[in-house]
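Fold these two proteins, one after the other.
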Amino acid sequence: MQLRPSFICAIGGVALLSACSSVDNSGTAVMYGGNPLTYGSSVNEAVTGAEPTTAFGKALKAEYIAYAQREADEWYDFFDADFFAKKAGKVAENETILPEDPANWRFDAEEIAQKRAVRDELIALLDDGKREEKPDTAAIAQARYDCWIEESEEGWQTELISQCWKDFEAAMAELRAEPEMAATPAPVAAAPRLFTIFFDFDSTAITPVSERVLDAAAEQWASSMSNVTVVGHTDASGPATYNQGLSERRAAAALSELTNRGVTADKVDSEAVGEGELLIPTPDGVREPRNRRVTISID
């Protein structure tokens, strides 16, 4: 559920802890809220309303309607069911509806920065023509990202959170893939799969979000048994010598988690670059959450 006041709404004698006010998305998304009392009409309006004119719009509308119905029918979360039903309705109006901004959900600053990095890559792919090239896959990626955001905020359906993330990663892998050439003189090696985990400031602790990324990386490795490269990074805050050691400890923490998941150590090359290869260029001394990371490349 998004940022909202809470009170008791009664539906058919069942008391639901929800909110019935609109959500202020602060300019990052269309203003639409969730209301347990209007879920049915919102779904009906989305289903019977005008069809989007693009293949991506049609697929995304269907994804949001299906997710809204699951929220209501399986989990009795009528607030978020109405929220996503209204989002489906906005898609039907041929508006450009973006993936959810994590800043509009109940996450701390570190989680927002980490999840925004994921969102930024998704939006970049969508804006690079993937809505038109692979409309069904692009719609799945956006819908599963929103599922991951919503369920992560609630935090109790761990299997669903993991499944949303796996579905999202699978769709993203397809969106990242370059189109096959009509004819090639020789077989072209598949591009390495890249996984990224992020860390809190001056920390080597593996976050719950990173646990799921490591799960996906280990599953990818198990399907290929290929070589793995683990690279530790830091941001530009603190002395360079300290950051070098911190990046080494982060790489070691990621390597330990991977071996615990079955990746054999002799298949892994580990290195650390400190603050030498910033993902987001910053002046020296600046804290930047997206630079505090470990990348895992699987051939």
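Now the second one:
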Amino acid sequence: MYSSLIFEANLDNFSDQEPQRAPIGIFDSGVGGLTVLRQLYRQLPNESIIYFGDTARLPYGIRSQAEILQFTREIITWLQQQQVKMVIMACNTSSALALETVRQEFNIPILGVILPGAKAAVQQGKRIGVIATPATAKSNAYKHAIIEIAPEVQVWQVGCPEFVPLIEQNRIHDPYTAEVARAYLEPLLEQEIDTLVHGCTHYPHLTPVLRSLLPSHVQLIDPAVHVVAACAQELDLLSLKNTHLPLPTRFAVSGCPKQFSQSGVQWLGYTPMVEEVCFTDTAISQLH
């Protein structure tokens, strides 16, 4: 497994004098946030990154707001212990239910995926569909964000409880997944949407399936692209952009490291070394 002691020793060498070289922390319930990680690799190739997947407690989309807020606090606390310079909540459910609260509680820049995604959507269309986890859809976070930016736009949302488990089980090309997707898209297609927002960072993994079911004129919006662009702007404003070579990406999960590593290889193009982090009521411990 990846040695955290080596990583932390490296951080100790520059975190106080060279905060630009500190890593960006990114978290999601599972492999969904890898869509954001891939965009970080493309748009900010010099940044060191710590990725956390809360795989022991997924899916987030069926959790209560109190649970999501607790999980988010625990993860950001752990990321702060790793001396990150910024946190990207690569999880729409956490962004919808916990972002504003944790921004007030933690003295660190924290970015969510919903506002960047909403801004991109209104630049593309006027009849916008959002597919999301049930919790994100119920929160109306995307609808509120989109209408606040462009009140004339119409928005329809569909909660998709089966998508995250199917993606985590690597069943993207299973015929059943196409059937589920068709059922979720049907009410949106009836509204003649011109734009579809991936309201969960897992969902870009389903792009081939969704594209096969959507009319060619419907634009797909991946908020991962736009939250990383916002991250780049924030780093510039704070003079925190790294110009040195990055450290290897560090991966941690709350569930089974082997399972995450096996799932992640197809999205990353390499097999990640993954460590396990255990959250308890009284402490956060690392297992090696």
